[in-house]
Specification:
The structure holds two protein chains of two kinds. By secondary structure, chain A is of the alpha/beta class. Chain A is built from five helices and twelve strands. Chain A is globular, with a radius of gyration of 15 Å. Chain B is α/β, with parallel strands linked by helices. The longest helix of chain B is centred in the C-terminal third of the chain and has 11 residues. The chains are: A alpha/beta, B alpha/beta. Chains A and B meet through helix 1, strand 7, strand 8 and helix 5 of A and loops of B.
Chain lengths: 200, 257
């Protein structure tokens, strides 16, 4: 039985994720301290805000190493929004290094005709060989100003916003979604449900 | 590529959901949290909640109830009613609300819009612009709290709030509220083309054809209350929402070839 820990370190709104997991009857809990990660079979890292700020917060509560160890142990990790961006090498938004679990760096979304920044709203997502997505029509709610290019390694779903944005990244037991499943009603519920069924 | 925005607009009074005709003739619809649960099941992409009494009665927003509503929303929620300060806006966002909707206070305190935008981002800062026709059929910005018409023209008001930092404008047609007459297309087109930010329109919508026409004229979001909570002709309470495929089709018809 899955038991999903949600990082609660002031990086985002873990409660919204908790509520959705409770709604789909997945056992979930907030993890404000790293020792709590061992209480779970999965870990979700939600994130909203500035990249460097988030890295500082994770450092301050001593969560960086425990997250890496959780990944080493084979347990599934899901980064949401900024949480996904933190999985990489870093971001144009700041100076701090990411968790280094993915080889790419985040770039600033280019504003263009008809494409205001931040990208805020629902977008349809195309997926390919993904463990988190169903085949077919899916849409999700996005709010972000930085992105991972869909051409980077480990991208399994993408959407169009002037440029091709990575919507989902997957590499072994490390997963990331740029959108907010907790604000994407049944699409988000289905995705989180699939995540919770992944085994180490 | 944008997707269609068809937004149920719920009016709250004392924790109950009410609907109105021209913001008078109030009918009790039911429990707001229940309605939100139903809209969740119907896969509504966005929801707006207005506390219509908060400003008039000078009280603070009902934070506890807002949190309860937000906790049932698995889609982005916008809230308006009694937001008077930057702190109010930040508190709202911390409770899980995506968009802060300013009305009364935005018109009386010119700096509020900028302050809220600085705190939560201009994309999350929405200003609601109520319009009503005078006895001479002239369109004026309307103030609910004082029930009076402002001197300013509607277009000037829209431009002014966007310049102040609003990332979205909600245009609410008080005369057409709850009337199922269809919206004032000329008005919504004029407002949509006068500002560079998304414009959402409420008041009078009764079907997808009208939404399609509004989208074709440059409106980003179509908001409605009565359409989704009443079944005509007798206004029996029934929460409904079109199938996404139908909404998509109506939106596709509105887009230029």
């Amino acid at each position: 039985m899955a038991r999903v820990g949600i990082v609660d370190a002031g990086l985002g709104n873990p409660r919204s994720v908790l509520r959705m997991l409770e709604h789909i009857e997945v056992d979930a809990f907030l993890a404000a301290e790293s020792h709590q990660f061992d209480d779970g079979t999965h870990l979700i890292l939600p994130g909203v805000g500035h990249f460097d700020d988030a890295v500082k917060k994770l450092d301050r509560v001593g969560m960086v190493e425990p997250i890496l160890q959780l990944v080493q142990s084979g347990r599934p990790l899901l980064g949401i929004c900024l949480g996904m961006q933190l999985l990489g090498q870093g971001s144009e938004e700041g100076e701090a290094p990411g968790l280094g679990l993915m080889p790419w760096t985040c770039k600033a979304l280019p504003a263009g005709a008809g494409y205001r920044v931040p990208h805020m709203g629902w977008s349809e997502v195309d997926s390919d060989a993904s463990q988190l997505h169903a085949n077919g029509d899916e849409r999700f709610y996005f709010v972000h100003s930085y992105y991972v290019d869909a051409g980077e390694p480990h991208v399994t779903a993408s959407c169009d916003y002037g440029v091709r944005i990575a919507a989902t990244v997957e590499s072994q037991n490390v997963f990331g979604v740029q959108f907010h499943p907790e604000k994407s009603h049944r699409y988000g519920m289905a995705l989180l449900e699939r995540f919770s069924r992944l085994t180490a | 590529m944008t997707l269609p925005r068809l937004i149920p607009c719920l009016l709250l009074r004392e924790r109950g959901l009410w609907k109105s005709r021209r913001f008078r003739d109030w009918t009790y619809v039911g429990d707001a949290v229940n309605a939100i649960k139903i809209f969740n099941e119907k896969e509504v992409d966005e929801l707006v909640l207005f506390d219509v009494d908060a400003s008039k009665s000078g009280r603070a927003p009902d934070w506890e109830y807002i949190e309860e509503c937000a906790s049932e929303c698995f889609m982005p929620l916008g809230y308006g009613g009694g937001i008077r300060s930057r702190d109010d806006a930040e508190k709202l966002v911390s409770l899980g609300v995506e968009k802060v909707i300013l009305n009364t206070a935005a018109w009386t305190s010119p700096d509020l819009i900028g302050d809220v935008a600085a705190a939560v981002g201009s994309c999350s800062t929405v200003v609601c612009l109520d319009v009503k026709r005078t006895w001479r059929r002239a369109l004026r910005r309307y103030e609910h709290a004082s029930k009076s018409a402002a001197r300013e023209s509607v277009l000037d008001a829209a431009v002014r709030v966007v310049d102040a930092g609003a990332g979205e404008v909600i245009l609410q047609d008080v005369d057409r509220d709850g009337m199922f007459t269809g919206p004032d297309y000329e008005l919504l087109e004029a407002v949509a083309s006068s500002v560079p930010v998304p414009v959402t329109v409420a008041g009078g919508f009764s079907g997808l054809e009208e939404a399609s026409e509004a989208w074709a004229r440059g409106v980003s979001g179509v908001a409605a209350g009565s359409w989704f909570v009443f079944q005509r002709p007798h206004r029996a309470v029934l929460i409904s929402y079109p199938a996404y495929a139908d909404i998509r089709q109506a939106w596709e018809r509105s887009q230029p070839e």
